[in-house]
Amino acid sequence: IDSEKENEVEKVFKNSHFYKFNFKKYVGGNFFLKLYKDLIEPFKLYALHKRIAKEIDAGGFDFIFVHPSQFTHAPFLLRFLKTPHLYFCQEPLRIAHDPIVEVPKNINLIKKIYEIFIRNLRKEIDSSNISYAKVVITNCNYSRDNIKKAYGIKAWVCYLGVDPSVFKPLDMEKEYDLIFVGDTIWMEGFDTLQKIVDLFGKNLKVKIVKPEKGKHITDTELAREYNKAKVLVVLGRFDPFSMIPWEGMSCGVVPVVVNEGGPIEAVKNGKTGYLVDRNANEMKKIVEKLLNQGDLRKKIGKAGRDDVLSYWNWEKSSERVIKIAKETLKL
């Protein structure tokens, strides 16, 4: 794990090991600190991952399930592991491969040149590291196609899942018409939400659940928020995937999902939710229809819950991982 205060890790793993990495926190204003973080820290991380890989290989494990690094995306660990392993790549490195995440326009020429240099450096580290992966798996077909485009690597699709014993229908009064889970930024589609709300005027009760510094919402608390809402809107721009539609469906809440990116693979249009183009007027029509037809909401909500129980859950996701490992690693 990468944090000594990892939440509830004991409930998930029998044993955990923490390898401390003394990275500097950068909040802007100190260019020399930024140079240190961008150019020196990767060498220290390289050495740490080499040591971790050696200890893992000595453990006699059947196979290793590797996650991305918050520092390099594809981790240096992949270079050194000799034990059979799967690398779970959620998406390509966005600052290198996603045109939406462009270099800021409001910075001077020197900073722009430096930013381009660092992005290219991180792209090279990420691309080099992932090339060592024995098998790459990812969260959906959309991400699989992006990985192929970015790295020229075949990835196996392994859909994730939710815990239906936590995200479940509760006997609660509906307090909100809409719930939006995500940050209030353009990338999350908050501008689209604002347009939808404006079309309704003041006759819409909206709950926004967003990340806040120093605060952490538990899955149990989040499940309660879903249950207080009649309709869930998922509006992120070309997300690789999102657990939000499944979480809502598992709680019996109907998701209205913008028809782009990976989240559309979670929804059967008109049966377990709705897929709508990024058009506020069209989305308003669907939301209004659901708000006015309680029986329809219940019918689709139940179908969504049933779909989660049969396919989009932790147990099924674990089975998919094991199946891919056996097929590709010859266990």
Features:
2 domains; 44% helix; 9 strands; 11% strand; Rossmann fold; alpha/beta; globular; 331 residues
Distance between the termini: 25 Å
Q: What is the helix fraction of residues, given as a range? A: 40-55%
Largest sheet: 5 strands, parallel
Helix-strand string:
HHEHEHHEHEEHEHEHEEHHH
What does this molecule look like?
Strand 1, helix 3 (77-80) and strand 2 (85-88) form a beta-alpha-beta unit. The chain has 2 domains: 9-161 and 317-329, Rossmann fold; 176-312, Rossmann fold. 32% of the residues are buried. The mean pLDDT is 92. It is 44% helix and 11% strand. Helix 9 (244-250) crosses helix 11. The chain has helices at 9-12, 31-57, 77-80, 94-97, 109-130, 141-151, 190-200, 219-227, 244-250, 280-292, 294-310, 314-329; strands at residues 64-66, 85-88, 135-138, 155-157, 176-181, 206-209, 229-234, 254-258, 274-276. By secondary structure, the chain is an alpha/beta fold. The strands form 2 sheets. A 5-stranded parallel β-sheet has the order 6-5-7-8-9, sandwiched between helices. Strands 1-2-3-4 form a 4-stranded parallel β-sheet, with helices on both faces.
